[in-house]
Amino acid sequence: MKLAFIGCGAMGGALVSGTVSKGAADGRDVFVFDPNGEKTAALAEKFGVNVCAGEAEAAGKADIIFVCVKPARTGAVSEKIKDAVRGSKGGKAVVSVAAGVTAKSYFDILGQDTKLVRVIPNLPAQTGMGITGAFFVNFDAKNGGDADLKAGVMTILEAAGSVIEVGSEKMIDEMIAVTSSSPAYFCMMIEAMADYAVRVGFTRAQALEMAEKAMFGTAGFLLEKGKHPAVLRDEVCSPGGTTIAAVDALEKAGFKKAVLEGMDACRAKAVKTEGYI
Q1: Architecture of the domain delimited by 182-270
Q2: Which of 77, 132, 169, 217 would bridge 121 by S-S if both were Cys, CB 3.0 to 4.6 A apart?
Q3: Does residue 118 sit in helix, strand or coil?
Q4: What are the E-state strand segments in the chain?
Q5: In which residue ranges of the chain is CATH 1.10.3730.10 found?
Q6: Across 233-255, average pLDDT
Q7: pLDDT tens across 77-107, in order?
Q8: What is the pLDDT of residues 47-73, one digit of tens each?
Q9: Residue range 38-45: average pLDDT?
Q10: This prediction's pTM
C-alpha cells in the first residue's frame, strides 16, 4: 500500500519516522511533500522515502493520503489533491491531522463520498508513545467499504502509539483537552516539581530527571498494573504520613479544580457548536 504525507513538520515527520522505522511500510512506498525542501530531503536521506514536487503528485501516487498541515492550509491542500482523490472513485483514503477542521470542510472540496479519517495525535507520537483518536467516515459497507484501507490507516497510526477509534466526529475534538493538549499540563507539573527540588538544593539536571522519571514511572506502573489512579494514590498515602499531607495541601489549593477548569477552557476552543456530520 502506497502512502503520501503532505506536510512534514513535527507531526507529519513523526508519522513518517514511525511508519518506516517500525516496519509499517517500506520507505520506497512512501511519498512526501513539504514546502520546506530541507525537511523532505532529511526524511529521504534517513528513511529512503520519495520526495514529490507538490501535493498533487504525492496524492496521485498514494492509496492513503495524510494531510499533516496547519488547519488554515487544509482548504488549499484539498484543492490541490481533489483531482487525485475524486479520480480514484473511492479507492483512496484521506487522513486529516488538523485539529478543528471538520469532515464537511473536506467533503465540500473532495466530494461527499470521500473516505476520510479525522485523527488527533499528540506530541509523544514522535517517540512511538503517542495516543491518537481516529474517526472513520465512509468506510461502511453502504459506501463500498474497504477493510484493507482502514487496516492500512490503523497500522500507520499504531506505529506512533495507541489508537482509540471514536464513534462520532465531535469526540475527536473533545479528546484534545485529554490527549493532544495534555503534555503542556504535565510539563507544568514537572517544572513545578523541579523548581521545588532546586529550591531545596538539587541541581537543575537532577531535579528534572527526578520529576520526569517520577511521572513517567507512575504512568507506566498504572498502565502495566491496570490500577485506578485513586487506588495507587491511597496506597502511597500512609496514615498520618508525608504524602497525605501533600495531597491535602494540593486539594485545599484547588489542584484538581484548576486542572478541570483548564481542560474546560481547552474544550471551549476546540469543540464547535455546529458543523459536525
Answers
A1: Orthogonal Bundle (1.10)
A2: 132
A3: strand
A4: 3-6, 30-33, 50-51, 64-67, 93-96, 115-120, 130-137, 161-165
A5: 182-270
A6: 98
A7: 999 999 999 999 889 999 999 988 999 999 9
A8: 999 999 999 999 999 999 999 999 999
A9: 97
A10: 0.90
At 77, the amino acid letter reads V
**pLDDT value of position 145:** 56
Cα–Cα distances in angstroms (integers) from residue 274 to residues 50, 101, 117, 181, in the given order: 39, 12, 19, 22
**Class of domain 3-175 (CATH, top level):** alpha beta
For residue 77 the three cell numbers come to: 491542500
Characterize 235-273 residue by residue with b for buried, 16 or more Cβ atoms within 10 angstroms of its Cβ, and e for exposed. Answer: eebeeeeeeeeebeeeeeeeeeeeeeebbeebbeebbee
C-alpha cell at 13: 515527520
Map residue 108 onto helix, strand or coil.
helix
pLDDT at 144 over 60: no
